[in-house]
Amino acid sequence: MLDVSGAGGWDGSTYYGREQVKAAPFNNWLVGSYIFAAGLSGGAAVLSAVMDLVRGDAAEPIVRRGRWLSLLGPTLGTACLIADLHTPKRFYNMLRLFKVTSPMSIGSWILVVFGLFSSATAAGDVLARLPGLRWLRDAAKAVQIPAAVTGAGLATYTASLLSATSTPLWAAAPGATAVRFGSSSVASAAATLSLGQGRTRLGRDLDSIALAALALELAGTISADQSYHQTGVANAMQTTPGRVEELGATVLGVLVPIGLLSASLGLGRPRSRSLSAMAGVAILAGSATLRIAFMAAGDCSARRADISMRFAQPENLPRMRGWPIQHRH
Q: CA dist 189 to 37, 181, 246, 254, Å?
């Protein structure tokens, strides 16, 4: 605050030190939970389709669980989203239009279309076991393809949604954020589906997929950190939410599971069910922490004028594509 009363002028507060941009109005826990559920559902739809196509009937238990797991986003995730909007009317009003320039509009339609395909796939899988409805099994196999395609979109569009805002941390590394969200979704889905699997080939396949996805997520995290330093928002990671993300998402959710899965899948060793289970729990905890802590750290970057002003410097702007308009107080 600047006091100029001694000069006979205005003795009130000035804009120095005040927020340059408004923090997003999202409830971090509700929207973060939605993003986590959406990613887990999308990843499950992709993996169940891949396992069905590659392993066939041998993967039936995994495929069935994946199809049911894919319903988590359209059900629980949608409930969290509507709760944040405070009224269902705001949700279905977003479906009145389809705007290709709006990540929120595109994401809303992806969620609805994915919900239809994933529900049809799960329902077909169940009904196909009834007498005379065996043909629904083939129908479910056909529908799982568009479910997987829209599931991939559901797992990553939230990164585009956050990156399109004026929140400095969210907008600083759009590509790396999409990689982190997408790979984390696949890893969490593989970890969930592998729980309960013994020393089977399917369990080993899922652990291998999770390990590869974690390696990609780690690469995305390193790339994001470089972008944060280049665009002047790195101080946002020094806040409490930023520290939580580094420890909870990167250390617990990526580095620890990489070590556990590497030990479990070591050459010449049978798959360790206990190590795989511990890695799976850590992956799920890290995936949820990534979304919630990332949103909270973004709010901190918006509220701190030193971060938002540094981010808005001309030398940082050329690195940003689709630079968002700053919403000032």
A: 10, 12, 21, 14
The matching CATH number, chosen from 3.20.20.70, 1.20.1630.10, 3.40.1190.20, 3.10.450.50, for 24-164 is 1.20.1630.10
Quote the tokens at residue 92.
């279905």
- pLDDT tens per residue across span 267-303: 567 778 889 999 999 999 999 999 999 999 999 999 8
Give the pLDDT mean for 249-261.
Answer: 95
CA distance 116 to 13: 54
Q: Is residue 258 within 8 Å of residue 211, measured between CB atoms? A: yes
Cα–Cα dist 97/105, whole Å? 7
- The count of other CB atoms within 10 Å of the CB of residue 294 is 26
Predicted confidence at residue 4, as pLDDT, reads 43
Q: Which tokens belong to 108?
A: 């809303």
Q: Is the model more confident about 22 or about 50? A: 50
Answer for the pair 28, 42: CB distance below 8 angstroms, yes or no.
no
What average pLDDT is seen over the chain?
Answer: 86
- 240: Cβ contacts below 8 Å, ≥ 6 apart: none
Q: Dump the DSSP string for 37-73.
A: HHHHHHHHHHHHHHHHHHHGGGGHHHHHHHHHHTTHI
Give dist(CA 30, CA 34) in Å, integer: 6
Q: Give the residue-averaged pLDDT of 120-128.
A: 88
Taking the domains of the chain in order of start, what are their residue ranges? 24-164, 166-317
Is residue 100's pLDDT more than 90?
A: no
Which of 275, 265, 255 is closest to 215 using CA atoms? 255
Task: Taking each helix axis as running N to C, give the angle between helix 135-163 and helix 103-127, from 0 to 180 degrees, rounded to the nearest 10.
Answer: 160
316 vs 167, residue with greater confidence: 167
Q: Which two three-digit tokens encode residue 189?
A: 């889905």
- The stretch 113-120 carries a mean pLDDT of 94
